[in-house]
Amino acid sequence: MPVNLKAKLVEKKELIPGIFKFSVEAMEIVEKAKPGQFIEIRVNDNTEPFLRRPISIHNLCKESGKLEFIFQVKGKGTTILSTKKEGDLIDIIGPLGKGTFNYESHSNLAIIGGGIGIFPLYELAKNAITYGKNVNTYLGFRNKDLVVLEDEFRNVSTNLFLTTDDGSYANKGFAIDFLKQDIEDGKIDSIFACGPLPMLKAVRKLAIEKNIPCQISLEENMGCGLGVCLGCAVKTAESPKEAPEYVHVCKAGPVFEATYVEI
Amino acid sequence: MNTKINFAGIEMKNPVTVASGTFGYGREYSEFFDLSKLGGIITKGTSLKSRSGNKPSRVCETASGMLNSIGLQNPGVEYFAENDLPFLRKFDTAIIVNACGSSVDEYVELCRILNTLDIDGVELNLSCPNVKEGCMAFGNSYEGVKHVTSEVRKVLDKPLIVKLTPNVTDIASIAKAVEDAGADGVSLINTLLGMKIDINKRKPVLANNMGGLSGPAIKPVAVRMVYQVSKTVNIPILGMGGIVNGEDAVEFMLAGASAISIGAGNFIDPYASVKTVQGIEDYMKKYNIEDVKDIVGKVEMN
Question: Which of A35, A254, B186, B277 has the fewest CB atoms found within 10 Å of its own CB?
Fold first, then answer.
């Protein structure tokens, strides 16, 4: 059950230009939250900008009640959010989403993310490695200036593969190429993905071809974030085009079985 | 202090309701507060058979508001009656079903079923801008509105409210059609047809190209229309369009609304509706108003 609270910003850090990590005190959300869930933030008290901003949960500290989220400054809302100071209160609803990353029944995980899509994968990797899973993490970035959280992910991964599209840092190429190789070598029994749509499409296709269970975290424009407005619709894979059936990212997701949805 | 009202034959403990399509069937917001605090709940638009809704993207943000083209996705009246109505009935609040259809026959058949259910009233949706047939197609002419409302009236004994579209030249004449057809109340306004273009892609943001604009951006238009309708008809008005707090609600009531709905405001603050109940009471205290009915229509025009 989500709660609405004013969470105190206790630590603010700009990881790379335009990408901020906020740590807030939100025990009531932290104690309930699961990997893959998200929060909704109202950036100010007036009605401009109007809607809340859905932002994925990056890290949960069950002991201290601290919740971390990372966001890129993109428009009006995130610009205002980025001006918050340590000590400020932030209006948050969470945890949201019934579709979470379920890794428990698997042993050899592939966690693959691209760009700003990597953030919700951290809590998953951290949990999985704590429970003794073999965590293979594949992170892709456009270039070296956009690489973030390398050390953090290394600490919660058995193996970390880092790529840049242009080869300006670490391996040149796409993260999925390394995943493909490990699948060929029989090292992977499950895939968990979050990132840009072309990457998710490629991962989904690969998982279906290789018959590997795959969970993907989706994004869609949201109105309410609670499952009320039915705005963030995604079509189920099995429903025919003439009679489409839609489920909603904020409620049934944001994490879905890759075979369940059409992207 | 009295906040109780009888709206179109429906007893309500206060004039605050939540607008169709912004509150689902109540479950999600019941996790935040006791729904019995509300005067009434207008359900998500419900049709005879289930509807899958429009292609995504279905929503986008605009200046002080949002566009939507959900397309009335809903599970159908049978599912509602079995699964959602028993849940809603656990709360001490008026339950009004927003009814939509794509032909006169469908509206009539739906309302025949609704007449047998344990609900307090029907809000006839003649104003959704996001579906091809029905709804707004009936809602934009005096004759169309009068015809479908009259046919529904024949099968519906429960209080009948008709929800009007603002996408017309003369909303007062449409409201008159509702009154002439024997309905008990009118609600206004539904969303204003709008469009947003992604200048980089050179395409509309919504897959359906156009959608309904809601939120504070439309409030002045809604207040004006409530005022005009109140000067034309004698049936009570359920006013809505951009209300996010008690002050907004009072503005609509001064313009002539007997009750109000919180719509998109629910999305930004899950407590917006209950805070509005409090906000109206605060206004009454400030101006020593004993009965909430004494605010209605009390605007003094220049």
Answer: B277
